[in-house]
């Protein structure tokens, strides 16, 4: 089969992505534009058949030190309408990446819940020692009645949701002018829990890129003038993604963090989503997770105890895969990464 390689407009690209069964936030044109404001360069490449896009990948490029070579990255993309299109798509991506002096390309294809993943080795990929997005998550089925959804949660989470609704807390969708209230809480949360954050303007841009179009919401919780919690959730296709959350140190007994999460799930249900991605837990099997979550607070362990209570399924993505175009540069980069890890 012969395909035309085209550079789609953002509108044509999103028209292909949104109805796709594996549609994901990180492949929307707006996400590429968002990352472009953080130093990445963005290219969208598509295969067309009789004028219709049938496959494509949004590729992000970042320079390596010295800016002679670059690294390329496809997050939760590489979407096709038929498996037979995979080789042609990655051949086209390879030509693009080599033209842009990429030393390698990292592909994080995302989740294959109902279909088998592709043969990565046959496509020219090797397992990558580094991931960018958390490979493991908890995925909630949010279909059915509210009672059935609550019944899937553990007793402690149900109790805290009910408590969060009895404390005269105001839950509301933020406007652009109220986004700084969230970023202030987020900075405090990061300092308290010792995890890294983007600058505040990164989150303000994310809201501006997605919320006005209806693809995201920022829900804040306020009690007697005090900001208690906030959550930024994105919805694409059948899945909503809980990407950013924050909570204040004061009045934690009011359980506002549970209240904003419950409000976000209601937002996702109202827009027709069937699943809710809690986005990121430790990359361990379920037995290890359950055995260690009460004694560990490092990394994503600190949030696993909260996320597990919502009654979802632990799932793992297909991980990360690298296609190497310049073996010496790739080997030098891996050596540096191993040295940094100690």
Notes on the protein architecture:
The chain is α+β, with helices and mostly antiparallel strands and 342 residues long. The chain folds into two domains: 4-131 and 319-341, Gcn5-related N-acetyltransferase (GNAT) (Aminopeptidase, 3-Layer(aba) Sandwich), CATH 3.40.630; 136-316, Aminopeptidase. The protein has eleven helices and 15 strands. The chain has helices at residues 10-17, 29-36, 86-99, 146-151, 155-164, 179-193, 200-210, 256-270, 286-292, 301-308, 327-341; strands at 4-6, 41-49, 52-63, 70-75, 79-80, 102-108, 126-127, 136-141, 170-173, 216-223, 226-236, 239-247, 275-277, 313-316, 321-324. The strands form two sheets. Strands 1, 2, 3, 4, 5, 6, 7 and 15 form an eight-stranded mixed beta sheet that branches. Strands 9-10-11-12-13-8-14 form a seven-stranded mixed beta sheet. β11 (226-236) and β12 (239-247) form a beta hairpin. α2 (29-36) packs antiparallel against α7. It is globular and about 60 Å long. The mean pLDDT is 95.
């Amino acid at each position: 089969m012969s395909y035309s390689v085209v550079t789609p407009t953002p509108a044509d690209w999103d028209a292909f992505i949104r109805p796709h069964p594996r549609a994901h936030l990180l492949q929307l044109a707006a996400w590429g534009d968002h990352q472009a404001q953080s130093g990445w360069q963005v290219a969208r490449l598509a295969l067309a058949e009789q004028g219709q896009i049938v496959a494509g990948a949004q590729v992000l490029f970042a320079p390596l030190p010295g800016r002679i070579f670059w690294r390329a990255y496809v997050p939760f993309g590489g979407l096709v309408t038929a498996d037979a299109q995979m080789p042609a798509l990655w051949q086209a991506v390879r030509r693009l990446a080599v033209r842009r002096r990429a030393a390698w390309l990292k592909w994080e294809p995302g989740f294959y819940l109902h279909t088998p993943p592709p043969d990565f080795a046959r496509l020219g990929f090797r397992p990558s020692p580094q991931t960018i997005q958390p490979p493991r998550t908890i995925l909630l089925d949010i279909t059915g009645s509210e009672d059935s959804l609550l019944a899937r949660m553990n007793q402690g989470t149900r109790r805290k949701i009910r408590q969060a609704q009895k404390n005269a807390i105001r839950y509301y969708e933020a406007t652009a002018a109220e986004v700084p209230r969230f970023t202030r809480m987020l900075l405090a949360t990061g300092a308290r829990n010792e995890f890294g954050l983007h600058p505040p303007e990164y989150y303000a841009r994310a809201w501006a890129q997605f919320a006005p179009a209806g693809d995201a919401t920022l829900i804040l919780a306020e009690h007697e003038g005090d900001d208690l919690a906030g959550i930024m959730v994105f919805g694409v296709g059948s899945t909503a993604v809980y990407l950013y959350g924050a909570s204040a140190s004061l009045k934690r007994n009011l359980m506002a963090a549970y209240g904003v999460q419950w409000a976000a799930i209601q937002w996702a249900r109202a827009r027709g989503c069937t699943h809710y991605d809690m986005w990121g837990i430790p990359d361990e099997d379920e037995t290890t997770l359950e055995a260690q979550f009460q004694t560990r607070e490092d990394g994503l362990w600190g949030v696993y105890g909260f996320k597990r209570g919502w009654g979802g399924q632990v799932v793992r993505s297909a991980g990360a895969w690298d296609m190497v175009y310049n073996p010496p540069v790739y080997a030098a980069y891996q050596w540096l990464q191993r040295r940094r890890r100690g």
